[in-house]
Write a structure and sequence with these properties.
There is one protein chain. The relative contact order is 0.08. Helix 1 packs antiparallel against helix 2, helix 4 packs across helix 5 and helix 7 runs antiparallel to helix 8. By secondary structure, the protein is α/β, with parallel strands linked by helices.
Amino acid sequence: MAERKLKLSPLDPVWSRVCDEAETAIKDDPLLGGLIHSSLLHHATMEQALAYRFSFKLASPEMGEQILREIADQAYHDDPDLGAAARADLMAVFDRDPACHRYLQPILFFKGYQAVQAYRIGHWLWTHGRRDLAYFVQMRVSEAFGVDIHPAAKVGRGIMIDHAHSIVIGETAVVGDNVSMLHSVTLGGTGKEDGDRHPKIGDGVLIGAGAKVLGNISIGHCSRIAAGSVVLQDVPACKTVAGVPARVVGEAGCSNPSLTMDQVIGG
């Protein structure tokens, strides 16, 4: 008699915690049952849940949920890094945003997190030559969330965008790992020139609210950009810049400013 092997489901502590929190949330407020079941508990994996949220939030009369769901499912199936990045982004929001108390909050309620995950699908489409469809995703993300990230931009893992209102990230921008930024940040160009024209943001950078980083310049690892600054020149690693135009005003204050989220200059 042939020996039968049991197939075990892979362990996923992040998704397991989301589901546990979802069950608790329904017990605490049964009126949330429909939302939480459809968005979370009806799905076997985090990737399936994210695909559902992507299709539900971005659907429009021009393109319905079913087509968008098929696109997202294909992207997550084709590229496992999308799911890994989504988990890293989720942990980043939970660790750095004092308003985030549960893992399920970003998936359900935080437009910064949802916009970044939608951008990642748009970027997958772009890299697979489906550029008009990628532009459609960019348009709908901008309309739905107020976040405009070009699908050709390169964005690392562990990204936290707090509040995420009026975020603009240009076509040739590069954002490293473990970057934190607040609302109204622009990573833009300086004119109508073509080619490589947008900022390159290093790992661990903290960008304050309303900061504008313009042109093909480099922002060094673990640096800080103060709120409201206009950055037009390269920023060395582990420094703080502030002002219009921005200039170096001191050290970054710690080894990982994007993780501590400390925006106080001097003191």
